[in-house]
């Protein structure tokens, strides 16, 4: 086999579809979020405003987080030096797990090196722990959940996105005595819509299923203490396993699940993706804990975040740009074509100093390519003026579609 040719043509296929990815080389300015320095492909350096960060509240630059990380490095050094089992469990990990269990009002929590691994490892492991398990997975679940379900090597059914009637049909058709798990998300990150959590919990109760909820885009942002949508809606006790990330609103890195102690203990004992990998650096655990604890009482910051998102949505709608309906802090604008999507994004960056990454297949279905904006409490009115003006300019220049 001509290996080089195989790799070259794999890349060429992506290019031919107009969805070849180019990463923007950025360097943030601490203290000036969401400003950053962009190194262009030609080696120039230019200031830009970042509009697509998942550091939704700018916590990655907050002094309470960075100071605790520096302190942890001064106290114990850089890496954890082992897996959790072999010298990699530190005071920082234990404290963070306690903090997270408390956040979700659960008995226990378990850390993973990312939210992706938390989903992949936990779901795959549930398939081993529960013989004959049937998983019911929402059609728009994140790639990490899809990989986890695949790894569970059990029967699975995909229910139409947010369609509880379809979910019930599938549950009803399954053997009554079989163990079942319903896996879904609270905030869907590309459309900004919210899963029907209460209705899913009702069905889970009726059909004897466990519930598994990915709150990655909600933790830190919703609920009285930042516990997510389940907390906001008073449903924490009805979700068996909550999964979250420390890398988005918490601004650091890592992932976790929170659940009954016996569930956490079983996953801890069986999941290769937890067992056989070096644990998070203590400084990451320290920074994440500072962030989680800080956000437990940061009501005003959460309100400001919602206000900023609502304001941007209103501005985009007024400008007659094709805003996609979103119930949350995520502001997607439809483009509907991967080549156009990249062209608009390039022009915003090159000509306006505004960075928003094009979102193309396979992140979203073909034909729904979009620009996805994530305004934070630190995106002020002037930045929004600049953005909307620039969007109108590029939409007109490239004759992009205006209908939503
Ligand atoms: C980003 C994301 C993850 C993965 O979290 P990381 O900590 O970034 O690995 C999981 N689920 C959803 C829905 C996500 O968007």
Automatic annotation (TrEMBL):
Pathway: Porphyrin-containing compound metabolism; protoporphyrin-IX biosynthesis; 5-aminolevulinate from glycine: step 1/1
PROSITE patterns the record matches: AA_TRANSFER_CLASS_2 (PS00599)
InterPro entries the UniProt entry points to: 4pyrrol_synth_NH2levulA_synth, Aminotrans_II_pyridoxalP_BS, Aminotransferase_I/II_large, AON_synthase_class-II, PyrdxlP-dep_Trfase, PyrdxlP-dep_Trfase_major, PyrdxlP-dep_Trfase_small
GO molecular function annotations of the record: 5-aminolevulinate synthase activity
Quaternary data: Homodimer.
Source superkingdom: Bacteria
Organism: Hyphobacterium marinum
EC number in record: 2.3.1.37
Name of this chain's protein: 5-aminolevulinate synthase
Pfam families: Aminotran_1_2
Cofactor(s) needed by this chain: pyridoxal 5'-phosphate
Matching NCBIfam families: 5aminolev_synth
Gene3D superfamilies membership: Aspartate Aminotransferase, domain 1, Type I PLP-dependent aspartate aminotransferase-like (Major domain)
Lineage: Bacteria, Pseudomonadati, Pseudomonadota, Alphaproteobacteria, Maricaulales
Residue ranges of domain Aminotransferase class I/classII large in the record: 47-391
Coiled-coil spans in chain: none
